[in-house]
């Protein structure tokens, strides 16, 4: 939704693979106004052609199951369709789970405000109370 796509946090996360062994794979991550982008950690940070997996806020339901063990934070991103994606990160500074949850809340609040404004303008137009100015 955001046109500026501002970077809120940058760094590394480990994502649990979906395979039989469920190995932890290190990912270079960018948290933006739109969601979380996951890159192969071996690629250069300046490589704009690197393929990213995008977890967009519009498809995210919640950040869940936060657990602290041996200096690591374990958490799950739950997508709107019910898919769960497990992550872990170092327990230093503001952990990723808190930043992602905050970004998700900001996104949902912005959506709610935009939706409310649209409904309000539609209501005003249908009742004839106040005409929107011609631009």
Structural commentary:
- The protein is of the alpha+beta class.
- Helices cover 24% and strands 40% of the residues.
- The protein is built from one helix and seven strands, in the order βββββββα.
- The chain has one helix at residues 96-127, and strands at 7-16, 24-32, 35-40, 53-56, 60-69, 72-79, 84-90.
- The chain has a seven-stranded antiparallel sheet with strand order 4-3-2-1-7-6-5, covered by helices on one side.
- Strand 2 (24-32) and strand 3 (35-40) form a beta hairpin.
- The radius of gyration is 19 Å and the shape is elongated.
How are the elements arranged and paired?
Blueprint (H helix, E strand, L loop, with lengths): L6 E10 L7 E9 L2 E6 L12 E4 L3 E10 L2 E8 L4 E7 L5 H32 L8
Antiparallel strand pairs: 1-2, 1-7, 2-3, 3-4, 5-6, 6-7
Task: Decide which structural class fits the backbone.
Answer: alpha+beta
The biggest beta sheet is recorded as: 7 strands, antiparallel
Low-confidence stretches: none
Strand order of the largest sheet: 4-3-2-1-7-6-5
Could you report the average pLDDT, rounded to the nearest whole number?
85
- What is the CA-atom radius of gyration, in angstroms? 19 Å
Helix content: 10-25%
Enumerate how many helices there are, as a single number.
Answer: 1
Name the quaternary structure. single chain
Distance between the termini: 23 Å
| Global shape | elongated
Q: What fraction strand?
A: 35-45%
String of helices and strands: EEEEEEEH
Number of strands: 7
